[in-house]
Design a protein that fits this description.
This protein is mainly α. The protein has a domain of 83 residues. The chain is built from seven helices and no strands. α5 packs antiparallel against α6. The protein is extended and about 65 Å long. The relative contact order is 0.08.
Length: 152
Amino acid sequence: MKQNPYENKEYLQRVAELQPKRNLAAGMAKAFWTGGLICAMGQGLSFWAQRGMGWDEAMSGTFVAIVLIFLGAVLTGLGWYDCLGTYAGAGSVVPITGFANAMVASAMEYRKEGGVTGVGGKLLTIAGPVLVYGTLAAMLAGVFDWIVRVLR
C-alpha cells in the first residue's frame, strides 16, 4: 500500500522549512496603509468634487466610484496593480479598485482570443455574479422593507 505523503513527518518538516516566512504584523500594516491611502484618495476626490465643482454628495460619490474603477482597470491593464497587490495584499483588494482589478484581470487572460470574444466575453465573468446577486439582495431587501411597512 502506498503511503500518503501528507502523513509523512519528513515530508511535512521539509514543507515547513521551504515555506516562506510571513511577518503578519508587517503585512497587516502594509494592507492598512495602502487601503487607507486608496480610500483617502477617494475622499479627497469627493471633497474636490463637492467644494471645487459644486456637486452634491450623491453626484460626487458617483464621480469617485467612476474614477477609482477607471484607475484600477488601467493599472491592471498596465500590469501595475499586480505589483500593488503583491505589496499590499488585502489592502489593494478591499477598496473599489480591487473590484475593477478582478474584472479586468479575468478579461486580460483572454486577450489573445480577440477584443469581442476574448476580453469582452470574459469581462463580466467576475462582475456578472456580483451584479446578479447584488440585484437579488436589493430586491429582497425592498420586499422585506415593503412587508414591514405594510404590517405597521
